[in-house]
Automatic annotation (TrEMBL), chains A, B:
Name of the molecule in the record: N-carbamoyl-L-amino-acid hydrolase
Enzymatic class: hydrolase
GO molecular function: N-carbamoyl-L-amino-acid hydrolase activity
Keywords linked to the UniProt accession: Hydrolase
Annotated NCBIfam families: hydantase
Ranges for domain Peptidase M20 dimerisation: 221-316
Domain of life the protein comes from: Bacteria
Family: Belongs to the peptidase M20 family.
Transmembrane regions: none
Enzyme Commission number(s) from the entry: 3.5.1.87
Amino acid sequence: MDRSPLSSLPLTIDGEALWRRLQELATFGARSDGGVDRPALSATERAARRRLIEWADALGATSHIDPAGNMFFRRAGIDDLDPVLFGSHIDSQPNGGRYDGAYGVVAGFALLEAAARAQLVHARPIEVVVWNNEEGSRYSPGAMGSALFAGQIGLDALRDVQDADGLRFADELEATIADAKAAGARERKLGFPVHAFIEPHIEQGPILEREGLPVGIVDGIQGLRWYRVTVHGSSAHAGTTPRAARRDAFVGAAELAAALRAPTIDSEDAVRFTIGRFRVFPGSPNTIAERAEFSVDLRHNDDALLTSLDEVFTELAQRSWSGCSVEMERVMTLSPVSFDERVIGLLEQGARTSGRSYRRMTSGAFHDATHMASLCPTAMVFIPCAAGISHNPLERIEPHDALAGAEVAIAAIVALAQS
Amino acid sequence: MDRSPLSSLPLTIDGEALWRRLQELATFGARSDGGVDRPALSATERAARRRLIEWADALGATSHIDPAGNMFFRRAGIDDLDPVLFGSHIDSQPNGGRYDGAYGVVAGFALLEAAARAQLVHARPIEVVVWNNEEGSRYSPGAMGSALFAGQIGLDALRDVQDADGLRFADELEATIADAKAAGARERKLGFPVHAFIEPHIEQGPILEREGLPVGIVDGIQGLRWYRVTVHGSSAHAGTTPRAARRDAFVGAAELAAALRAPTIDSEDAVRFTIGRFRVFPGSPNTIAERAEFSVDLRHNDDALLTSLDEVFTELAQRSWSGCSVEMERVMTLSPVSFDERVIGLLEQGARTSGRSYRRMTSGAFHDATHMASLCPTAMVFIPCAAGISHNPLERIEPHDALAGAEVAIAAIVALAQS
């Protein structure tokens, strides 16, 4: 067993078992190219949830699911205090990797396993959490389960949202909850007091690898704004309609996309501006597009800069683009988040105790920790991923980094469970 | 009955019956917005084909279907000569109108009806033709049935083409042929000698309406080139990946699309350049696109100009666009077409006999007549459509124009059938 090097840690983590669980979880929704396609609330994700319930059963933890589809695997404490939460998510992008989200959940099971083996006694309940629908690629917005848990959004407004195949969110959620209950999970109400939350996660960026560090202790998350843009033109025959008579929604949308992008090009390369979804309708080669729809994902550390870009965007959306009109809706707003200094301090202490070098850093991606930070003391631990590649089947991590991150995070959460 | 005004025409066309048939055909695949969605080889198109067979039965014409899915409704001549063909297509764009294609087919049934009523005797067989898959929006390329009939392309290369739902062309074709045979159509071999072809069609452009003319006699079709462009980038996380580290397929494709469009912007507004299909993959808001695919539809009267633009396009596709590589494939090439002067002369004579004012004009759209012109003397008749709008549920024509165009075209085809 590749055990932790220092006996001063509260628990000894089994690195091989952690790696085996990671690879087993990756078989649910495995793609032929080595990646994972495990959409939130899908049949493959339901099967993965059932497997987690089996893992929890074997480790003496009780399984729970709340009305938002979040799952909790609970190891009782000796006192009836607010629990500490530890975990991440298991849904993936359509062409996702094996470790985004999955790493934090499997680190949670490494904690349950080590605690069971050591017969660890702790004051507070320790709960491994699986937040529902973090990716948001099947049902928008992302980080939905933690946002619902933290009361940032309400469930009613989401029920009728449909995925690309026309399947309703409420139906898929209900089926997932029924499936989990059939496998032994207990129902639980949405939202409860939490003492602290730690989320281990892969970095999804290049910094730790470049600096040769196994661990990042994350002290905050950059702010994010998501927009949904619709450009309305007029369909007409591609062969007969002169340029002057066209209102081509593709041309209008492409011009608007370039205009929105221009003010985000900063010399520091710190603003993140992405159009990841772009569709034209009806989508026929010889018909001028009558409508185009695209997404905008905008992020930066500085909320004031995001607000000023928002004003520029709003002004641009009021113009006409190649004769087309524009609707622009802001569908998600996350202010930059600063994590809890006490939790950060316990993580730094965990890194020192386990002899792992680390750096403090800010997260470029949003995470479920974004919403939890509004509810309880929260922080995150990052481990490096190869070339910073994520949301891609090529996503890779190293077993020794997976163990290092788990040790640091588990040291802190166990300390919090004792207090 | 709104009969033709002049007795010197060979047949008296029933304008009300022609209009009723147009509206009945529009019920197959009717959209709630008044348009038509009748994809080639679909269940709705099969039902429409069955209805045409019923029409033909009632008018004493025999129904035939060939291995390309083209249908022929034949009224025998007194001699065993090569037939004259008259017709168009019944498939539509996904958000198409009621008259594109349908008008030419219904004009054919107006001919069969008038000939039956008058017990017209003619030397050559007269066949109303329905060319398969003219639009090309479900299975590329467009004008497929007439291209197969004329030997411009082969059937084998098309069999495994799939539509957006993964349905194979060969399977859908086979099911359509079986359905037509069950309804009474006879099998016929692909391709046979044709004496002449006339295709009545809506203009799909603004010229006839603007000039207040009921009829256009079409002396040619502008040339067309279709391209399929794929831009290869690399997917990565939208929140963590610096701009400098991105190979964003959306950004590359949008830049390339603008670069391809730039040299087509001519002061005469005569070049037609359209990107009607544009897709990004995986299409998730917080994932940088790894791939973008788009179509290019390029048209002009002058083949040399199309060739020089083709060279510019090829050069542009060899460059790197925001770090992305490009594959560009030319999937259809149609040279500009000049129609047969004798057929044009008969159409002009028909217009004079029926007292309909007209102009000669070039077609901006390609049609099945493009391919037929390589096989036999061919021409087209246009009627105006409101504001030139087509490939759109708002497509509109006037009953008196529908009658005028049918009279002119029928006068010419009957003259050709006697020769």
